[in-house]
Amino acid sequence: MNHAKDILSGWMELSGFPKFTTTMLPFLLGAVLAWAFGHPIDWIVLAISLLAVFLLTDFCFVLNACSVYADLKQKGLDFGRVEGTSTLHSTAVSGRFNALVKGHISVKQAVTGAYLCVLAALPLGVLLQFHFKTGVLTLPLGLLGIFIAYGYSMGLRFSYHGLGEIALTTGVGWLTVSSGYYLQVPQGSLLHDFEQLWLPTVVALPWMIDVFKLKLTREIPDFECDLAINRRNLAIRLGKSVTARLYLPLTVCSWLAFVPILFLEVPYSGLVLLAFPMFFTAKSLRKFDWETGEGLSAITKNAFIGMILIPVALIGIFVIKMVV
Q1: How many domains does the chain have?
Q2: Would residue 133 be called left, alpha or beta, if left means φ above 0 and alpha means ψ between -120 and 50 degrees?
Q3: Is residue 285 part of a domain?
Q4: Which residue among 28, 115, 129, 305 is the one 20 to 30 A from 299 at the CA level?
Q5: How far is CA 220 from CA 65, 149, 209, 228, 230, in A?
Q6: R_g (Cα) of the chain, nearest Å
């Protein structure tokens, strides 16, 4: 009984459930966007698809954590154990290894669980496409999500070849919003369905840019660890200093990406909600100290809050559009 409890607690720790907001919230944004443009929300479809998103998110996060942990073990590196916990490569974006270090769960058990998540998600995609008739792109969009999640740290290993940031931006930034929107709009021809994706793409732009920016920023504290396992991400290729200098221009680009939303007939009163994500991002800009651990921790904390508030603010704006 205790062994099963340890595996469950280890799985939950590897999953990092607070990070699930990075996929669930933008997916909800897509559904609300469809509602705001004349497509009533199908709550059963939304519930089933949210469960599928949850499962695929778990698949991605657990698989990534296991991949990095296995690489570190293969290199024979010290995990910096402090009272049985791992302090190496333990930022929120990377996944925590404490459960693996303590032996609560093995890599094999965690990876098996990750694949079971995919097996559980696939029937949901089939149900959505063929029973609820959500459109011909339903399964392809889901399979794209599986491909990105797997390819990020396994298979093609995008994150090891300077493509992880693009993969993450595509999966978390674009795919979540677009699929959330697509599943709520009436199906049509294949060309019609592709044409439907322009609106969620425009709305998702500030979110996509901020996802890319935060991913880059969070690679700085993991620089030495990623270098040790030959994870040649963009931070490794560009260097810490250049990566840090990209924070400001990417922030400005993210803010400018809100401009097209003004042309979507949203009430200007709702735009005040954008002040919340901009406030936390500005806090990181005001004291951008990336050379100390304490400074980086403050930057990434405020940047993450600012990033996650983007879909929250946009959901609020489009809800107000419907109410007003």
Answers
A1: 1
A2: left
A3: no
A4: 28
A5: 17, 22, 18, 14, 15
A6: 20
Are 214 and 179 in contact by the 8 Å Cβ rule? The answer is no
pLDDT tens profile 143-187: 999 999 999 989 899 999 999 999 999 999 999 999 999 999 987
**Would residue 294 count as lying in a domain?**
no
Q: What is the pTM of this model?
A: 0.92
Q: Is residue 299 part of a domain?
A: no
The per-residue pLDDT for range 109-119, each reduced to its tens digit, is 999 999 999 99
Q: What is the CATH number of the domain that holds 134?
A: 1.10.357.140
Torsion region of 294: left, alpha or beta (phi above 0 gives left; psi -120 to 50 gives alpha): alpha
DSSP state of 85: B
Q: Residue 159 has what DSSP assignment?
A: G
What DSSP assignment string belongs to 103-116? TSS-HHHHHHHHHH
The pair of three-digit structure tokens given for residue 52, joined into one six-digit string: 């599928």
